[in-house]
Amino acid sequence: TTVSSRLPRTRIMGCCGPKDDTPWSYEKMNKNRKCTDILFLIAYFAFMIGMVVVGILGFANGDPAALLFGTDYEGEMCSEDYPARYFPNPYELYTASQATHTYGFKDVKSMCLKDCPSPVGTDAEPLNWVCNYPDSSDGRGMADMTRAQWAAANYDYYDSLSAQLKTDSMNNLGPCYPVLLHTVNTYETCTFFGEQDSDAQSELNSLLIANGVVPTLEHNLGSIVEALSSFVSDQIAGPAAVMQRYIDDFSQGWVVCLVMGFLAPVLLSFVWMGVLRYFTGVFAYLIILMTNVGAIGVTLYLYIKAGVIGSDEITAYAGDSAAATAENYVDPSEDNQEVLLYCAYASTVFAALLLVFTLIMLKRVAIAVAVIKVATQAITAAPSVIFFPIAPVLVAFGFGAYWLAAAVYMYSSGEVELRECDMVDGLPPKKYCADPTDADNCHCGYESVLDENLQYMLLYHLFGLLWTTQFLQAITYLTLASVFATFYFGGGSYGNSLAGWINTPAIQSFRKMTWFHSGSAAFGSFLVALLQFIRIIVAYMVHQMKKAGKDNIFVKYAACVVQYCLWYLQKIIEWINRNTYIMIAIEGKSFCWSAWEAISLIFNNILTVGAVNIIGDTLLFLGKFSVAAVAGLLAFLMLDSDTYTTGESKVSSPLLIVIFCVLFGFIIASLFMSTVEMAIDTTLLSFCKDCKIHGGKPKFAPPLLESVLGKAKSKNPFRGEKGAEGSDSA
C-alpha cells in the first residue's frame, strides 16, 4: 500500500520530474540546470544565417573601388586594362573646387587611360591631346578606331577631326582636350604637379590665334596647378598622406607602443588590483572623510563671507569707513550677505544630513569594502579569469572586420546612376557641353545609388552587428558571473574547479553558460541592440532633416529630448541585463524571472548596493585613469630620449604615439576593471541572495565578509566543517 500510494504522487508532480523541495545549495546551482530562452537562440541563429547570405550577396555584386575612384564620363569603372582615371579639362576641375552651386568632384568629366598622359610632345607635334573614347557613348568619338588603337596613339586623334570638332576641342568642349600639365598616378588617379609645359602652351596659343579663338584663363593653367593638385589630393589621398607620416612614426616607435601601450597597462592594472585588495578600506574611508570635511568647510566659508563668523564679510567698494561717514548710504553688499547667509543655512542642513547619513552608512560601507575585497580575492584565486574578456574582444574585432568588409561591398553594389547637379548657363557642366540640349553629351557625373532592397540589406546587416556585439558581451558577463558566483557560494574557494590553465573556472563556466544560457544571452542582447538600432535611425532622421533645412528650434529640442530618453532607456536596460545575467549564473532560470529577481534583490538592499556602487565605481575609475595617465607619461618620457629625438629612429612627433598609449592603456585597464566590476556586482548579488534564502543570515559568505558581519564562521562543507544542517544555526 505504501509503495502504490507513492507512485501516483510522483507522477502528478509535473512533466519535468518530481517537485524539488530541497533548499538551495551550491551543488544545486551547478548541477540542476536547464536550457533557457531557447526560442531567442533559434531566432539569433536564423538571423545570423540571413546575415551570412546578405554578406555573400554583397561580396558577389559589390566593387569597393567604385567608392574610392568613381566612374568615367560614361558611368563605367576603370578596369585593369585602363586603370588610370584622368581629368581631361583641368579648368573644369578647378571650377568644381570653387563651385558655389551643386556641382562637385564626381561631376567633372574623367576618362580611363592606361597611363597618365604627358604634355611633352615631339618636335613635329609639340602639343599632345587626349580625346574621347573612340566608341564614345555620346557619338563624339572616332568610330573607325578601336580602343587599342586609340591607346597606341596616346589617346590622340585630334588631326582626324573635322574643322568644327577641332574648334570645339580648342574651347574645351571636346571631343579632344590639350595636355598642358604634368600628371602622376596617385591611387589610380592622375594628379597634377609641377609647372605648365611651355612648349605645349606656346603651340596651343599659336593654334588658337590661327583659328580665330581668343585665348582665356582656361588655356593658361600655370597659376592653378597647385590648387588643382591640392583639390585632387584632398579628394583621394589627403587622409592617406597624413596617415602615411603617422605610420612612419609608428614603425619607428613600435617598441614604445608595445611596452607602454600594452605591457605597462597590463602590469599597472595588476598593481591597481593589488591596491584594491589591500587598501580599499583606506580609500573608501578617506573619500568619506574628505566629502564630509569638504561639506563642513564650505559651510564655514559661507558663514565667514556672510559676516556671521569673523569680520571677512563682503563689503562694497566704498569700504566700511566711507559707508559709516556717508549720510543716507545704503550698502549694496548687504543683499549679497543675506543671500550668502541663506546659502550657509542650506549648506548647514546639507552637511548635517550628510554626516548623519554617513554614520548610518558606516556599517554598509564596511560591507561594501568587504565585498570589493572578496571580489579581488576571487580574481586572485583564479588569475586566468582576468584575461578571459580578451577572447571575446578579439572575436568582436574579427567579426567587425568581416562586417565592415561586407558592408563596403554591399554599399558599392548599388546601381550606377546619373547624379543630380545644377545645370546653369555659363557654369559647368553646361558650360563645357558642345550641345547643351543633348542629354548624352551634357549631364552630371555618376554615382552608386542604393535601391530600396539594398538599403534594407544594409539595415539588416547593421542590426546584425549590434546584436552580435551585445551577444558576445552577454556571454562574457554570464561566464564571469558564473566564475565569481562559484567562488562566493564555495565559501571563498573554487573547490575542485582549479585544474591548471586548461580547465580553469573561466573555461568551465564558459562551457556551462554557453550550453545552458545562450538563449538568455540572445534575449538580453536583442533588447539592447534594438534600442541602439532605434537610436541610430533617429539620429539619421535628425541628420536628414538638418540637411533639408527643416531643423527649426522646436525640432532640435524635440530630437534632443528623444535621443536623450532613448540613451537613458538603453542604459537602464544594460544595467538590468547585467544584473540579470548574474542571477542566471546563480540560479539558472529564465531571463525574465532572473531580471525580476535581480531588481527585487537590489531594491530590497538599496543602501548596501548604493554604497558598493559608489565606492567601487570611484575606485575603478581612478584605476582606469591612473593606468592610462601613467602609460602616457612613460611613453612620452621614453620618446623624449635621444633614441627617438635623433638618429634613424627619430619620430616627427610623439603626440600620436602618446595618445595611442593613453587610449590603449585606458582600453586595457577598462578590460581588467570590467572583470573586477563584474566580480564586485556578482559578489554583492550573491551576498543579497544568500541573505534572502537564509533568513538574513548569509550561509556561504567568505571569511572576509563574515568578519565584517560580526558572525561566527558559516559551517558549510567547503571549509571542511558541518553541512547545511549545522550552518542554519550559525
Distance between the termini: 41 Å
Major sheet attributes: 2 strands, antiparallel
The neighbouring-strand order within the major sheet is 1-2
Give me the number of helical elements: 23
What gross morphology would you assign?
Answer: elongated
Oligomer: single chain
Low-confidence stretches: 1-22, 328-333, 711-730
Helix content: 55-70%
Work out the number of β strands: 8
Structural class: mainly alpha
Strand portion, in percent?
Answer: under 5%
What's the Cα radius of gyration? 37 Å
Mean pLDDT: 78
Give a quick summary of the entry:
This protein is mostly helical and 730 residues long. The protein is built from 23 helices and eight strands. The two termini are 41 Å apart.
Description:
The chain is mainly alpha-helical and 730 residues long. The protein has helices at 2-12, 26-31, 38-61, 65-69, 90-98, 147-152, 163-170, 198-210, 225-236, 238-252, 254-305, 319-325, 333-381, 390-411, 452-489, 505-547, 553-587, 591-604, 606-639, 642-645, 655-693, 703-709, 724-727, and strands at residues 84-86, 111-113, 128-131, 176-179, 182-186, 189-193, 415-418, 446-449. The protein has a two-stranded antiparallel sheet with strand order 1-2. The chain has a two-stranded antiparallel sheet with strand order 3-4. A two-stranded antiparallel sheet has the order 5-6. The chain starts with a helix and ends with a helix. The model is unreliable at 1-22, 328-333 and 711-730 (pLDDT under 50).
